[in-house]
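Per your request, structure below.
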């Protein structure tokens, strides 16, 4: 039995993933652009969801590059016939990962759900080529916005 929070068998899962893309992809693309992403790069997209970032990466790295889009459940990934975009069912915690294989590894809203985060980050770092980039994006509800939630909770009587 999976301990994953979101039930991927849920009929609205594609809608949920698409909504997350709409909300977060713009900021992710800006961060990725800031890393100097260019043609020819080899990229790993961990937890690709509906594939918005993976498709964008494939367009950016061009025919000379390659994007490996991974997720526990890949049925929501449609690569739209891109030869440089490979989709693979992959568990980042336990499945093998080639060392020194990628110029960029991106994971958004993945690591926060894992029990052994440190080990996963070490595995991801080992999969980077020398000079490669590891970009991990996570939602932090305990940061600067946490104080803003308190008045709303009190107003609602929670």
């Amino acid at each position: 039995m999976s301990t994953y929070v979101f039930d991927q068998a849920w009929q609205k899962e594609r809608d949920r993933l698409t909504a997350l893309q709409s909300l977060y992809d713009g900021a992710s693309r800006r961060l990725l652009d800031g890393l100097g992403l260019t043609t020819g790069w080899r990229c790993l997209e961990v937890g690709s969801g509906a594939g918005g970032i993976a498709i964008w990466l494939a367009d950016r790295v061009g025919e000379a590059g390659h994007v490996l889009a991974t997720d526990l459940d890949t049925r929501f990934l449609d690569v739209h016939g891109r030869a440089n975009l490979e989709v693979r069912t992959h568990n980042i915690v336990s499945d093998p990962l080639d060392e020194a294989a990628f110029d960029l590894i991106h994971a958004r809203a993945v690591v926060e759900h894992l029990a052994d985060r440190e080990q996963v980050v070490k595995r991801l770092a080992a999969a980077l080529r020398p000079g490669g980039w590891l970009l991990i994006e996570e939602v932090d509800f305990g940061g600067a916005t946490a104080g803003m939630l308190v008045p709303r909770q009190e107003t609602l009587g929670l």
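Residues 13-33 form the longest helix (21 residues).

Regards,
D.
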